[in-house]
Design a protein that fits this description.
The complex is a heterodimer of chains A (166) and B (189). Helices cover 47% and strands 17% of the residues of chain A. Chain A contains 9 helices and 6 strands. Chain A has a single domain (5-161), classed as 3-Layer(aba) Sandwich (Rossmann fold), CATH 3.40.50. Chain A is globular, with a radius of gyration of 14 Å. Chain B is α/β, with parallel strands linked by helices and 189 residues long. Chain B has one domain (2-188): Thiamin diphosphate (ThDP)-binding fold, Pyr/PP domains (Rossmann fold, 3-Layer(aba) Sandwich), CATH 3.40.50.970. In chain B, helix 1 packs across helix 2 (24-33). The termini of chain B are far apart. Classes of the chains: A alpha/beta (166), B alpha/beta (189). The A-B interface holds A 19, 43, 45-49, 51-65, 67, 81-82, 84-86, 89-90 and B 21, 41, 43-46, 48-61, 78, 80-81, 83-84, 87-88, 176, 179, 182-183, 186-187. Chain B: Keywords: Decarboxylase, Lyase, Thiamine pyrophosphate. Chain B: InterPro entries: THDP-binding, TPP-bd_CS, TPP_dependent_decarboxylase, TPP_enzyme_TPP-bd.
Chain lengths: 166, 189
């Protein structure tokens, strides 16, 4: 299976997103963050800590501006309270793309030997956050509709990368 | 030291169509100072995120001034936002920190480093375009016009004590109707 950053980036653009808020994640660094940083169609805001991105995306959303938060699963776990309040309780279109550091590409995240990876999907399900995992470019076809739905229905989404995008 | 409600009354005289983001105790006082204004925003959700919300509003609304009324305890929970804001360099963002040295909304316990932390110095080192510190009301009243005219990001450390009591109504602070009113107002432009 092949998952490419190019396909994901095209899907993000197709969803009308031009701002990316990010703390670097080694699993998406080469495939997503470097290409996004070099793409003049995006405004990249580098944040110091992931929960800042939740607040920034929230502020933008009130004015109808879209953003993608590109982070690592450890940063998501660190930001749970911000996600709980701002994204879930306030029902805002906070769109997160989350790299699963050290996840085994051949295994579903629930079967990973990495504890932090293993608990991601159950946490998202328990919080009621719409979520998806990308393992191949075929899966990327769901990205733009998922992001557009988040804005149309005003709810958060978490899209995880099941392997490092090339 | 300045009384917070008096600082806010002076500030309110200079504001009209600005988005104002308030955090906790300052937010309660701001609601009492500028009641019912559709561009008041107090649903920061998680402590520390007022400054980050401010950056988001500033990015999305580049033609409108955005004022953050932060707390010192709140800013300590999100110090990295000073660097993020300075790097993003929004010319329309003004970041005020109401420094009372305590977690006022959580029992009045002292913040770490109470009286020793130099918030203005940290903002200056982070790279804010202009940084101010005010300790007395007269100087603030004289200087606020210049502060508001500076290209941002601007930071002002305001040494305050609580002033007149305002209602601590958390239901109003987080009222979803107020968030809808803000959205509608921003759509109107």
């Amino acid at each position: 299976m092949n998952l490419t950053g190019k396909a994901i980036i095209e899907a993000v653009l197709e969803a009308g997103i031009r701002t990316v808020l990010s703390v670097p994640d080694i699993s998406t660094s080469d495939g997503l963050l470097f290409p996004i940083a070099a793409n003049s169609r995006f405004r990249l805001v580098r944040v110091c800590k992931e929960d800042e991105a939740i607040g920034i995306a929230a502020g933008m959303s009130y004015a109808g501006e879209r953003a993608l938060i590109l982070i690592q699963h450890t940063g998501f776990l660190d930001s749970i309270n911000a996600v709980r309040a701002v994204a879930v309780e306030y029902e805002l279109p906070i769109c997160m793309m989350i790299g699963l550091l050290n996840k085994e590409p051949e295994l579903p995240s629930r079967q990973s030997s990495v504890y932090g990876v293993r608990i991601m999907e159950p946490i998202l399900r328990e919080m009621g956050i719409v979520h998806d995992t990308l393992n191949s470019d075929a899966d990327v076809a769901r990205v733009a509709p998922t992001l557009r739905a988040a804005y149309a229905q005003s709810h958060p989404v978490a899209i995880m990368t099941g392997r490092s995008p090339s | 030291m300045m009384k917070r409600d008096q600082v806010l009354k002076i500030l309110a005289r200079h504001l009209d169509r600005e988005i104002v983001i308030g955090a906790y105790s300052t937010a309660f006082d701001w609601i009492a100072t500028r009641p019912g204004h559709p561009l008041n925003f107090t649903s920061v959700g998680a402590m520390g995120l007022a400054s980050s919300h401010g950056l988001g509003f500033a990015i999305a609304c580049p033609d409108r001034k955005v004022i953050v009324l932060d707390g010192d305890g709140s800013l300590l929970m999100n110090l990295g936002s000073l660097v993020t804001i300075a790097a993003a360099a929004p010319a329309n963002l003004l970041h005020f920190v109401f420094e009372n040295g305590t977690y006022e909304a959580n029992g009045g316990h002292p913040i770490p480093g109470q009286g020793r932390v130099d918030f203005a110095g940290m903002a200056r080192s982070a790279g804010y375009a202009a940084v101010y510190r005010f300790e007395d009301l007269g100087t603030f009243e004289t200087g606020i016009k210049e502060v508001l005219q500076q290209p941002g990001p601007v930071f002002a450390d305001l040494k305050v004590v609580p002033g007149a009591d305002s209602p601590r109504d958390y239901a109003e602070l987080y009222d979803p109707g107020k968030r809808d009113a803000l959205r509608a107002e921003l759509r109107r432009g």
